[in-house]
Amino acid sequence: MKIMVIGQGGHSRVIREIIEEQTTYRLIGYLDDKFETVTNLEGRYTGPIWAVRDFIHQFRDLKFILAIGNNRIRKQIFDRLQLAKDSYVSLIHKTAVISPSAEIGNGTVIMANAVLNAGAYVGSHTIINTGSIVEHDNIVGDFVHLSPNVTLTGTVKVGDGSHIGASATLIPNIQIGEWTTIGAGAAVIRDIPAYSTAVGVPAVVKGKSNTDAQAM
């Protein structure tokens, strides 16, 4: 399978390594608006994001991945491209542990040493970062980012677009509203409403999320 990465920053370097470790994948290049024209250097393309449909016509079996860590920008580019759902590939690092009963949406990335346990559901274009644990029967929405070493204990629900900071822990049955930010190291012991920022141990709401919900 040929894969084109959309975005060329720090997050894309991790994506590249996941792609290159799998013998069934072939990375053919990067699309990013820092490139003004399409170039081909020894079989590796670069070009602006608008060139995406030219590559679709050129490569029949081409898939894409949005390698952008910021949830808001990732969704904006997704909306801008208007590609079919099956145009996106999901990537799973070889060290991740995925239950046979877990479900993963299109365009999602599961990074090294992450765990998805029985009945877990992860939506589309979500990032489950290094060492994060998604326990049984969790529901993680679309365009979410779980930073490294996040722990979602059983039956947690994380709304679309939310960002859970590194090493945060959510106790069982917690619900996080959409487009909400949970600070690094937080211990979430009660529900957090949508469009909020919550920090601390235990986590308390400190204000509105930096995400502009109206821009979504």
UniProtKB/TrEMBL annotation:
Signal peptide: none annotated. One of its GO terms (molecular function) is transferase activity. Acetyl-CoA binds at H145. The active site is at H136 (proton acceptor). Pfam families: Hexapep, PglD_N. Residues 2-81 form the PglD N-terminal domain. InterPro entries: AcTrfase_PglD-like, Hexapep, Hexapep_transf_CS, PglD_N, Trans_hexapeptide_repeat, Trimer_LpxA-like_sf. The record marks D137 as: Increases basicity of active site His. Keywords: Repeat, Transferase. Substrate binds at G69. NCBIfam families: NeuD_NnaD (TIGR03570). This is Acetyltransferase. It comes from Ammoniphilus oxalaticus.
